[in-house]
Amino acid sequence: MVPLSYYLVLSGILFACGVTGFLIKRNIITIFMSIELMLNGVNLSFVAFAAQWHALSGQVFVFFVMVVAAAESAVGLAIIIAVYRTRETLNVDRVNLLKL
Amino acid sequence: MLHLLVFSVFGLVCVAGAVNLLVQRHPINSALSLVVVMGSLAVEYLLLGAEFVAAVQVIVYAGAIMVLFVFVIMLLNAGEEERTKGSRVAMLFGIPGMLIGSVLVAWVLLEHSGTGNVATGALPGPPKVIGWLLFHDFLLPFEVTSVLVLIAIMGAVVLASHPGSVEQRSTQQDKREG
Amino acid sequence: MTPNLHLWLIPVLPLVGAALNGLFGKRFSRQTISAIALGFSGAALVMALWIAAQFSSLTLPCIETLATWIRAGDFQVDFAFYLDQLSLVMLLVVTGVGFLIHIYSVGYMWEEGGFYRFFSYLNLFMFFMLTLVLASNYLLMFIGWEGVGLASYLLIGFWFTKDSAASAGKKAFIVNRIGDFGFLIALFLMIKHFGSLNFEQVFRIVSGLPAEATGAGLLTAIGLLLMVGAAGKSAQLPLYVWLPDAMEGPTPVSALIHAATMVTAGVYMVARSHVVFDRAPQALMVVAIVGTLTALFAATIGVCQTDIKKVLAYSTISQLGYMFIGCGVAAYSAGIFHLMTHAFFKGLLFLAAGSVIHAVGGEQDMRRMGGLRHHIPWTFWTMTAATFAIAGFPPFAGFFSKDAILWQAYSSPYGSWVYWAIGVFTAFLTSFYMFRLWFLTFFGEYRGEAAASEHVHLAGGSRAGAPAPHEHGHGGIHESPTVMLIPLVILAVLSICGGWVGSERFDKFLAPALHSGVTAYSPEQAAVATPAPEPREHGASEGLLTSISILAAVSGLFLAWLLYQRRPQLPQEIAHALGSFYDAVVHKYYVDEIYAAVFVKPLIDGSTRILWHGIDRDVIDATLDNSAEGAREVSDAMRHMQSGNLRSYAGWIAAGAAVVIAYMIWMGTR
Amino acid sequence: MGIGTFILVSIIKIVVAIGVLLTAVAYTVWLERKVVGHIQNRWGPTRVGPFGLLQPLADGVKFIFKEDLIPPHAYKPLFIAAPMIALIFALTSISVIPIGNWITVFGIHTPLEITDVNIGLLVVLGITSLGVYGVALAGWSSNSKYSLLGGLRASAQMVSYEISLGLSLVGVLILAGSFSLRDIVDAQAGTYWGFIPRWNIFQWPPQIIAFFIYLMAAYAETNRIPFDLPEAETELVAGYHTEYSAMKFAMFFMAEYANMITVASLATLLFLGGWHGPHRFGPPLLQAILPVFWFAAKIFAFLFLYIWVRGTLPRFRYDQLMAFGWKFLLPLAIANLVITALIVALRA
Predict the structure, then answer these.
(1) How far is it, in rounded angstroms, from Cα D245 to Cα D159?
(2) Chain C contact for A33, CB < 8 A?
(3) Is the distance from CB of D184 to CB of D190 less than 8 angstroms?
(4) How far apart are CA C583 and CA C595, in angstroms?
(5) Using a CB-CB distance cutoff of 8 angstroms, which residues of chain A are in contact with residue B138?
(6) Tell me, what DSSP letter sits at residue D172?
(7) What is the domain count for chain D?
(8) Taking CB atoms and an 8 Å limit, are D155 and B63 in contact across chains?
(9) CATH number of B1-124, picked from 2.60.40.740, 2.60.40.10, 3.40.50.300, 1.20.120.1200
């Protein structure tokens, strides 16, 4: 028997790692992965709650999250490719044309 | 007991993968560690009785999305992450802030969330029921997401295709039509 | 039961003419324009005459209400017209003289550009003047009051391309503003205390009030304020300064507006509100003093003027002073009487002067004239009549009115021998400078550059750079066309016979309108009235006084003859003898300069320094500029958040999210 | 059954399964060489043992003793990990594939598979979808343009065809109404009119189209001719495993053939009625063994088809491959799915 809070803490840790990665990583692809990581953490909490409250809608929600993540990653990676074509770099610190 | 064991083992694997994602300097390693995270998450889902979710997690996330990531990494031949000096502000506030925040959240969760145990396989998610939910209760969101996916596909194609090539294709089509 | 007179038609007719000429005049031929102008003003005259014809059968005052204008609570102002003896007299004077001057203008302005403009303005003036005269309440009167100001502004600045003309127009307008300010305040006081502006109601209420013999009260205040307005409009001290400059306008305008009609509006107004003045002796005294001083002051200036129109202008001012003396001693009928006669002979004088200027080709300086009586006999004779009239020679019109005024000034309970003395001296001066003008203009031999070189003179003349009143350059000194002479003749006849009515009959005629006799000797008035200087010797002293004033006139004539006919070099010597005083008089006592120094300059400096630099630039503009500058600086500081660095954005987002989460935790765990 | 016996039985099953599978792999290789040889009018391996039956053994020995080269600029950890990943996933996927009914040996009642999960199909799909990592990482880590191209092609191709493959299976799932492979097989038991088996390809609505879609998608998934672009010898030397030698190469080799067997068995289970064969006959023991035999036979037939196609068809061009996958197979699979769903819905 595992307390719900354990799952929640785990998902929280994953989410925090995702946020941290988003903040500290410089490679735009890795940043994307961090986003995926956050989503996964959220998914875990969804499933855990679904199990806790015996509501399958939690799992259904996970599917939606996955679909959105898939679409987002597809577009995002396309954007990354476009950026790489024009800027010849994947370092977000160098992709700063919007500065000042 | 066994469940707690399994949970903690794969939870640790999970966290390790996540941390590794941060530590690794090469995107491909980060990607693989993320795959590890997803796999262990799938196991957690199984533990929670969400078999279908687990399977889909593996197939879609690990099998498709992450493959896409790896593919892009290979395509762009992304190398080691170059070192640029991080801002001192982030060093000063970010790390302690993150620590404090995570500790706080963990404490709150442990203290204030329902401490009722989650029976393993408590909620067997038979695909039939999930399908029922998807196509009845969540029909509208389902359709909306389908539209979203369509748009995403088109957007991805347009973005990733060479502008020049798009030009060529359109001109060729004009020739064909004209 | 009085038949409906359709009084409203009288003002409206000229308005129609003005509208027609003003809107479509550009396309009309000069004949059409003059036809329209004369037609409508003539129609007004005809109506006035028709009303006068059946006047005896009317029950006066008859009031015709056209429509309700303002209704606020129990305060109501109507478009209503008020006809009584007083307004009838004014009506006849305005329409009559106005019509004659219209005729004259057709000839005078024929060659001018903006012909239609001129006549539409002229008709507009008629409309406003008639509104003023016929108004049945102070507000409508004020509309006419302002309207004639506007018309005079437009007409003074008729040659608006000429700087002096434009500024003269502005000067007239602004100076009038000051007077109108007083007038307005008077109206407000009436509204506050009487709750109405209709003549009847106001007068009824006022009649109930006791006279303010001792100490100034409400009525005195109203009276004084009205007097301020009158002083502005009728060019009395200290607001007379605009009138001489107004001579920049075409001569017919000077005749109509600045001699015959408009400038007398003040007199009319004072007479109209005599009820107030009767109960405010202080105000009356002020009126009288102002009138006296103005008369003397303007007369002295007039003595030294060399511009023929300026001389007439100052004489106008001084004659207006006479009228105010009349009103100031509660002898309103005398004032109005003089107003009428003055309208005749002063109009005639101006028209004749215009004819003279016309004859010598734009020359206005009398020193360049002379010996014209052979060249322009008609003008000469008519002007002679007018001169004798204004000089107060019996049996010309001016004699009767001026004599009535002087007599009243001496004998009326409000009068005193000081007024009389100054009046007589002024009469002497008047006749002196008028005959000076007469001699200089018509006698001796022509002193202007040879008539042959008239064009050269014109080119270098005083009207350089502006459309001269007549570019028709057929050389030589020539008599004016008939259309200009007809009015001269008519007015000459009037200024000879106009006074034969006699002041007593005139007084009786006007008595119902302004019960001067009644108010003057009503018991309560008698109680408060300053005791008349031994009224017993009226009979004796009247003849005496009359003879004295005649003597003054004659001596004026003699002196003028002596100086300008017999010993032409004498004036210079006198001038040298007088020295600085003479200069002061020549420069009109430097009044304009004083005003410029005392009022205008501080005003300009104040508005420049305080209003423009101080408030507009340093406060208003500065507020805007500084706020914009501040916004720019703030955003300049803020934009460093927009580092373009994705991760810094992410940091901001994370920080915000952290705050929100902390808040939620706090709320949840509380 | 106690936990101890459970673990014991599981271990036994795993060992047996791995052994059988590896043997099968080895002899699939031998079979291919033989068949292709005959197709090309030559003998194929003949020297080692009768009919060269020991050839796989010799190959194994050779691979083991070969020198193991690692290119200097390769990314070492992944270079080493890649083949293992490939082989592991390839072998793991077999664990949920049933090869027969439940049997009782020594009083222990157990299914003829390593573990019986009720989402077996999904597990198989998931594991096979993970198999791509081996190829992709191998191609990338060996830091050679041929390998990289091969890896790119492999990953792109596998991800693309996975969709068609999955969709082609949904029809079967609709018919069976379950993810459990055992249920799916049981749903195909029996015959029409005594002689037509109730295989899914013969069922109503027939999944024959789905079967062929699956066939082609499976070829692409396993990088077999005509879709062996990732290792196209004529253009990419050897594709993603150009730089590999010795045991690592052998792992890729085994992984490929193990995948072949996996998809073959999957096809057998889903479309060809699994272990159900003609009517039962013979003694009980034989009856107990027969299903396994039928199953093996079907797999053999499927593998033979594989080899036959390889010996027959030329290779696609890459754009043709992608166009075929996205513009032909995918719409076809969707159409098949829709039609099947419609018919089932109307029949219900």
Answers:
(1) 27
(2) no
(3) no
(4) 18
(5) 57, 60, 64
(6) H
(7) 1
(8) no
(9) 1.20.120.1200
CB A67 to CB B148 under 8 A? yes
Tokens read off for D163: 């969709």
Say if C644 is an interface residue toward chain A (CB within 8 Å): yes
Q: How confident is the model at residue C525, as a pLDDT?
A: 41
- With beta carbons under 8 A apart, name residues in chain B contacting A43: 41, 53, 57
The closest CB to that of B22, out of A20, A32, A79, belongs to A20
Contact flag for A and B (3+ C-beta pairs < 8 Å): yes
| pLDDT at C1 (0 to 100) | 45
Asked if A24 has any chain C CB less than 8 Å from its own CB, the reply is: yes
Residues in C touching B87 (Cβ below 8 Å) = 648
- Range of the structural domain that residue D334 is part of: 59-347
Mean pLDDT over the full length of chain A: 83
> What is the predicted ipTM?
0.66
| Identity of the amino acid at A81 | I
Query: Strand C75-83 to strand C62-72: parallel, antiparallel, or no bridges (unpaired)?
Result: antiparallel
Cross-strand pairs, D200: none
Strand segments (E) across C103-192: none
D82: nearest CA in chain B?
B32
The span from the CA of D227 to the CA of D232, in Å, is 9
Could you write out the DSSP letters of every residue in C229-276? HHHHHTT-TTSTTHHHHGGGS-HHHHHIIIIISGGGHHHHHHHHTHHH
Q: C645, A24: Cβ pair inside 8 Å? A: no
- Chain D adjacent subunits, 3+ CB pairs under 8 A: B
Question: Which residues of chain A have a CB within 8 Å of the CB of B65?
Answer: 36, 69-70, 73
Decide the pairing of beta strands D102-105 and D108-111: antiparallel
Is the pLDDT at B168 greater than 60? The verdict is no
**Other CB atoms within 10 Å distance of the CB of residue C409:** 30
Note which residues in 131-170 of chain B have CB less than 8 A from chain D.
none
Task: Enumerate the residues of chain C whose CB falls inside 8 A of the CB of residue A100.
Answer: 639-640, 642-644
The CATH number for A10's domain is 1.10.287.3510
Partner residue opposite C665 with nearest CB, options B90, B97, B108: B108
Q: Which two tokens stand for residue C576?
A: 């040298």
Do residues D280 and D290 make contact, with C-beta atoms less than 8 angstroms apart? yes
Q: How many domains does chain A have?
A: 1
Mode of pairing for the β-strands spanning C75-83 and D102-105:
unpaired
pLDDT single digits (tens) A50-83: 887 777 888 888 888 888 888 888 888 888 888 8
Which pairing describes strands D108-111 and D191-192: parallel, antiparallel, or unpaired? Answer: unpaired
